[in-house]
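Private note to self, pasted from the team thread so I don't lose it. Backbone tokens:
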């Protein structure tokens, strides 16, 4: 089986984790600080605030935006459910714009149509490792006085015109076990705003600035030094990791670009794709439907995934939620029925890549 994701750690991680263990202090401490400083530096922002996962990163980021009941956060319906769960947990209303089928990200033209008097935040999700079209989104946010929340869980150090994910607005990242960078569970929030960063640090620690001096009703969103120690060496290797993913993606696209019934993913101009997922679209021209396509890939020993099989509004829990406001998103609907993600991780061999290309081509041709 060629797995869809494969994570391996090195002696650098082992040594740093041991260092933390031997120190006897394994909760949030100097390793978390080191992780934050390095991540902020690499992303090109003033502050990075580490938290315990990517979902709480979203929740905390929304909490410091001081939203009121009825305020709307405009996002994409084609995302991992955490994006919407965080909006609801923060007390806001989730509204949706359609996506584009060339980058799978929120479509600024649709965003422009869906902004209302109550819209306070536009929340693009940089899906699969490629950033949303930020220039028009920034222009819309400026015109309408909106905040930008970038759900960058899948796009660590991806760039748009040279600027990194998380450097346009408030950025949130996940370091879950399957992401490009991992602490098992973990998250981080990026910002250039000193006040926001300060509020986030207080919020993640029970609202406490000094011991038993509570400024706000807070939470425990802390990451541990043990977790931070796992990711620090990965940060130093990350450029090589991304290069390997890019090379694998290029090889797959070269092999799949002329296959009828399959649309290979594109890296759009001005964007650096970090290839969290390599996601093709299986169209009506393919010999088999998408679900059968995936079943046959798995049978052939190729790990394949559907991210995501349904839109958020297709689940009763959200469709019936009083603070979820649905509207038509036909492109997202079609794309959700077409996507298949293939392995693109750094441990693929030439033979693996050839097998993926051959199997996908054969399935599409029938
Ligand atoms: C993984 C992910 C999250 C949530 O991160 P966790 O660390 O699992 O809480 C949020 N948004 C997107 C788009 C994700 O892929």
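Design output:
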């Amino acid at each position: 089986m060629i797995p869809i994701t494969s994570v391996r750690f090195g002696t650098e991680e082992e040594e740093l984790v041991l260092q933390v263990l031997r120190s006897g202090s394994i909760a949030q401490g100097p390793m978390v600080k080191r992780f934050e400083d390095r991540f902020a530096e690499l992303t090109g922002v003033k502050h990075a605030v580490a938290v315990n996962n990517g979902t709480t990163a979203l929740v905390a980021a929304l909490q410091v935006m001081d939203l009121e009941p009825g305020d709307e956060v405009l996002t994409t319906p084609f995302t991992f459910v955490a994006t919407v769960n965080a909006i609801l947990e923060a007390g806001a209303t989730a509204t949706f714009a359609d996506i584009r089928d060339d980058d799978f990200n929120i479509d600024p033209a649709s965003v422009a149509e869906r902004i209302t008097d109550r819209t306070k935040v536009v929340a693009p999700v940089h899906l699969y490792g490629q950033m949303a079209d930020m220039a028009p989104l920034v222009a819309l946010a400026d015109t309408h006085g909106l905040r930008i929340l970038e759900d960058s869980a899948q796009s660590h150090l991806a760039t748009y015109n040279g600027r990194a994910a998380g450097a346009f607005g408030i950025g949130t990242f996940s370091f879950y076990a399957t992401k490009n960078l991992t602490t098992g569970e973990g998250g981080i929030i990026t910002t250039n705003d000193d006040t926001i960063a300060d509020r986030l640090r207080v919020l993640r620690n029970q609202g406490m600035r000094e011991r038993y001096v509570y400024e706000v009703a807070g939470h425990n969103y802390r990451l541990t030094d043990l977790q931070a120690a796992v990711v620090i060496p990965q940060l130093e290797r990350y450029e090589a990791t991304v290069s390997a993913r890019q090379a694998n993606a290029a090889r797959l696209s070269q092999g799949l670009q002329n296959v009828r019934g399959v649309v290979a993913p594109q890296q759009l101009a001005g964007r650096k794709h970090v290839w969290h997922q390599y996601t093709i679209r299986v169209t009506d021209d393919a010999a088999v439907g998408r679900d059968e396509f995936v079943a046959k890939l798995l049978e052939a020993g190729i790990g394949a995934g559907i991210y995501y099989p349904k839109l958020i509004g297709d689940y009763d829990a959200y469709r019936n939620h009083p603070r979820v406001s649905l509207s038509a998103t036909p492109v997202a609907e079609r794309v959700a029925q077409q996507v298949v993600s293939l392995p693109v991780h750094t441990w693929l061999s030439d033979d693996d890549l050839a097998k993926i290309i051959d199997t996908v081509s054969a399935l599409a041709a029938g």
